[in-house]
Amino acid sequence: MWGSVANLWRLKHLRNRILFTLMVIAVYRIGTYFPVPGVDTAKLMASGGNNALWNLLNMFSGGAFYKFSIFAMSVTPYITASIVVQLLQSGVIPRLEEWQKEGESGRQKLTQLTRYLTVGLGVLQAAGLTYTFARQGYLYTGGWWTYAVIVIALTAGDTLLMWFGEMITEKGVGNGISVIIFTSIISRMGQFGQQVYQSWFYAHPDQLFLNILKTLLLLAGVVLIFACIVFVQQAERKIPVQYAKRVVGRTVYSGQQTHIPLKVNAAGVIPVIFAVSLLILPYTVASYFPTRAWAEGIMRYLYPNSVWYVVLEVVLIIAFTFFYTHVQINPQQLAEQLQKHAGYIPGVRPGYDTEQYIIKVVNRITVFGSLFLGIISVLPFLLLSGTSLNNAVNLTGTSLLIIVGVALQTLQQLEGQLLQRNYRGFIR
What's the topology of domain 188-395? Predict the structure, then answer.
């Protein structure tokens, strides 16, 4: 382990990538302490503890929401924009589907569209928050100028975070947006420890032995969930492939056996992030119109950690897992590549039959992977239900999945860089 860490620092470009990532994270964390002008953050923090949505937004923003800093909206507008663009390019808008097939130039166009949509959604969300805070008396002064400053500051902060994420992806380590969310969740874990102390040790000092036992069981449960997540995230289904002997020019390629590795959870942690971001949207819109009947219904039944919220979260995670898996794995392209290079799956005809076989295998393993993600996302809620920690937003299945998923994704990227230079990596 320590030898692998030392190897990272021996490689100059890897060392620079890690330092760049840490620098961007440090700037992001410092930015969470710069409040937007015109908002009474003390009143917001004092009255917001019982608001489930605000608690969730505060976790995903790393505490920036209750400080109402320039990063209070976190990257939720960007994630929502990404969901919309990916859904639209799946046959809804043919032009976007064509861009997806154009290679690098098409991806640049889709990225630019996502950026513009992020800014637009950021303005809408910032305006909604400003309207809500003005109605509840959290602003020092009123007037259109104050509202405009708050909206511009929040939108600029959201756009800056989007740029931070892209810079980490390009010049740093890991997926930038995922790294920012990972940093935000990790920064709030200390608050969960404080909740445990206040709910168990401080509230019931006479039950010291029982409190210690409950804490140890809680830690053991978290470690067990981490182990299960790692196991499933690393699991693969290997499809055997046989290459026939072929001649290209004067070069003779002998037949060989290999395999296609298909991950049980090829979508990674993206479906979890998408599901949470999408569920936040209706509750956020409803909070802008609290007196309307439809808004009251949404706020009564669809607040974070409610039964209906948890059920819909599982359904959306399963749906997004299937959707994103088929975005990541293209069975038609795999079948065409195998046929082009004289490869075939033993017992399966090349071409269409190979494509259908890969689709069947992908669907089977995705059923297990999606159900696992759904179960893990609600497991802490079920285990803590009925205890004083049932509203602990900082310890949810979603946050645990994101922590492990992003950590594994980043480690695998570093692993690949080390193995390219004949160094032993982290993962055994």
Answer: Preprotein translocase SecY subunit (1.10.3370)
- Indicate the range of 50-59, 106-115, 124-133, 370-379 predicted with least confidence: 50-59
- What DSSP string describes 117-142? HHHHHHHHHHHHHHHHHHHTT-BSS-
Give tens-digit pLDDT for 317-329: 898 898 888 877 8
Helices 397-420 and 208-234: crossing angle in degrees, nearest 10, is: 50
377 pLDDT above the threshold of 90: no
Q: What is the pTM of this model?
A: 0.82
Long-range (24+ apart) CB contacts under 8 A made by 278-285 are 278/80, 278/83, 278/316, 279/304, 279/309, 279/312, 279/313, 279/316, 280/53, 280/56, 280/57, 280/76, 280/304, 281/80, 283/53, 284/53, 284/125, 284/128, 285/128
302: which residues sit within 8 A by CB, 6+ positions away?
Answer: 279, 282, 283, 286, 308, 309, 312
Q: Is 331 helix (H, G, I), strand (E, B) or coil?
A: helix
3-state class of 400 per DSSP?
helix
pLDDT band at residue 20 under the 50/70/90 scheme? very high
Could you give the percent of the chain with pLDDT greater than 70? Answer: 89
Would you list the domain boundaries of the chain? 1-174, 188-395
Q: Which two tokens stand for residue 140?
A: 């020092």
Query: Which residue type is seen at 258?
Result: T
Length of the chain: 428
Give the orientation angle of helix 397-420 with respect to helix 12-31, to 10 degrees.
Answer: 160
Confirm or reject CATH 1.10.3370.10 for domain 1-174, answering yes or no. yes
